[in-house]
Amino acid sequence: VGQDITQIREITSEQERVADDLSRLIESANAPIFGVDLAGKVTEWNRKASELSGFSKQETMGKNLVQNFIQAENRQSVSDVLQKAIAGTETANFEFVLMSKHGKRFTVLLNATTRRDGKGNITGVVGVGQDITALNQVLAESKRVADDLTRLIDTANAPIFGIDTKGNVTEWNAKSSSLLGYSKEEAMGKDLVQTFITADYKASVDEVLAAALIGKETANFEFPMFTKTGARLDILLNATTRRGPNQEVTGVIGVGQDITRIREITSEAELVADDLSRLIESANAPIFGVDLDGMVTEWNRKAATMLKFSKVETMGKNLIQNFIQAENRASVAEVLTKALAGEETANFELTLLSKHGERFTVLLNATTRRDAKGDITGVVGVGQDITELNQVLAQSKRVADDLTRLIDTANAPIFGIDTLGKVTEWNAKASSLLGYSKQEAMGENLVHA
């Protein structure tokens, strides 16, 4: 007696491929990811978590997460978050301090998600973190900018909705509910445009959604939405076509960003608004992919926008020979070759020249790409444009150098002390006037010496 298990095999193969993709994504993610079982023992510990904490995967697996890797002052709060997730109540944007193996402190923003098996039974928790240490340092240096950026980060969670080909709501996430005040039950099955969009924008939003329903996607479309209580929210929307297994259009997914507070800040200070607009505009990351022969297989919109080479112009071309500067070809080739051998590279800095001669400094992560069987098929590179940052750093260095020269050559005695009263500055005039050289003065207590 036979049984046709072709479809079962196909489903199993697809599940294994998805599981492999997920495992590689977790392992190569640029965010620390860990998992625990119902007893709080570590079951997942990705490369970024190892890099950040200094503890290898071998050192953590099977150990109690809270007791072994969380600071004493954070253990109760982290334990509460994990217990809630194990009970099915997930937590987003939980901030705590992580101390590395070598004593370095990191501030981590954590999302704790319940993990379930195929039957829906809870088996543990997966935590996805974001290292915000550097961000907090930047915020501390400038309180005004820090407050603006904090509000921007606090509103970063995205409302997501979906519609079918008739414009009726098929997806409505928690952020949409909390932001607009309409529960998922109230929204599902309703006509999105007619029910939730203000009259002045019904036509333009309908046009964007109709375009996405024929495969023409839209990014950064701005329009207002009103909450259940009548409050106006400004939303920045990306509308993406949703397709079925045979590539037929089944609807649209809209990912929004609440920019209401940003708009308020913009109206308060035009200069800050311009800076934030440039920050938001440059936030998207250029992404490219190559096959085993170094030929381009991926080239995203940001890469096209930044370098002025369209996807059509790049696909199938040799990345290094056609789009990398001569002086960087050897180093980029080495990075790609390593990735093709399974050795990935993070934070590799290189210069890219656009089609029109504009130079960009990019910080690159090169990640090995594999198929369902684990065979290497190419490399995916995710870049970050740090051109403007380098310019700011160069400008800061120039100002610092000018200030140092000004202090040293001033025709007045200038000295500086730290919080303990010890000398940290002692210029030439102070030396000539008081007779103490800089070497004799530095580090001495100013008052007592």
Radius of gyration: 27 Å
Strand content: 25-35%
What is the CA-CA span between the terminal residues?
100 Å
What is the overall number of helices? Answer: 20
Question: How would a textbook summarize the main sheet?
Answer: 5 strands, antiparallel
Q: Please, what is the average pLDDT?
A: 81
Indicate the percent of residues in helices: 40-55%
Strand order of the main beta sheet, please? Answer: 2-1-5-4-3
Index terms:
449 residues; alpha+beta; five-stranded antiparallel beta sheet; 20 helices; 28% strand
Helices and strands in order:
Blueprint: H1 6-28, E1 33-37, E2 42-45, H2 47-53, H3 57-60, H4 65-69, H5 72-86, E3 91-99, E4 105-116, E5 122-131, H6 133-141, H7 143-154, E6 160-164, E7 169-172, H8 174-180, H9 184-187, H10 192-196, H11 202-212, E8 218-226, E9 232-243, E10 249-258, H12 260-268, H13 270-281, E11 287-291, E12 296-299, H14 301-307, H15 311-314, H16 319-323, H17 329-340, E13 345-353, E14 359-370, E15 376-385, H18 387-409, E16 415-417, E17 423-426, H19 428-434, H20 438-441
Antiparallel strand pairs: 1-2, 1-5, 3-4, 4-5, 6-7, 6-10, 8-9, 9-10, 11-12, 11-15, 13-14, 14-15, 16-17
